[in-house]
From TrEMBL:
InterPro entries: ExbD. It comes from Crenobacter cavernae. It is found in: Cell membrane. It is a single-pass membrane protein; Single-pass type II membrane protein. This is Biopolymer transporter ExbD. Keywords: Cell membrane, Membrane, Protein transport, Transmembrane, Transmembrane helix, Transport. The chain crosses the membrane at residues 12-32. Belongs to the ExbD/TolR family.
Length: 141
């Protein structure tokens, strides 16, 4: 028994245009109010080595840096702060050595500037290989 035979029922329409307008306004609001933070941190994965010591140590040039900035290059004592003497001492120590390696033994309380001075002097003496010597921490027993 269909009493509505002659009447055709119209399907309801959903108007999406106001919804799209609302979403665009919300999107613009979020873009304007969002703060972008920059991280000043740098993630550094330090290398670890379990290799055995090299047998040949004849090409190494030891450079010791004391707490007060005094330096010892291949057994020769240098006054603190003399970069020209440091370059000359590195060149003398590297003379006749094949691929010399500068080994920096810096005191834990030595300034960064003294280590940078050694690095600059090695660059000026055309020595490109540097090693920073460290020691293992003693664990309390």
């Amino acid at each position: 028994m269909n009493f509505r035979r002659g009447r055709h029922r119209e399907e309801p329409e959903i108007n999406f245009i106001p919804l799209i307008d609302l979403l665009l306004v919300i999107l613009i609001f979020l873009m304007v109010t969002t703060t972008y933070s920059r991280f000043a941190e740098i993630k550094v994965n330090l290398p670890s080595a379990d290799a055995e010591a090299k047998d040949s140590q004849s090409s190494e040039i030891p450079v010791a840096i004391a707490e007060d900035g005094e330096m010892l290059v291949a057994g020769k004592k240098l006054a603190p702060g003399s970069s020209d003497a440091l370059v000359a001492a590195l060149k003398d120590a590297a003379a006749g050595k094949r691929e010399p390696v500068v080994v920096v033994n810096a005191d834990a309380q030595a300034t960064h500037q003294s280590v940078v001075n050694v690095m600059e002097a090695a660059r000026a003496a055309h020595l490109s290989q540097l090693i920073f010597a460290t020691q293992k921490l003693q664990t309390p027993q």
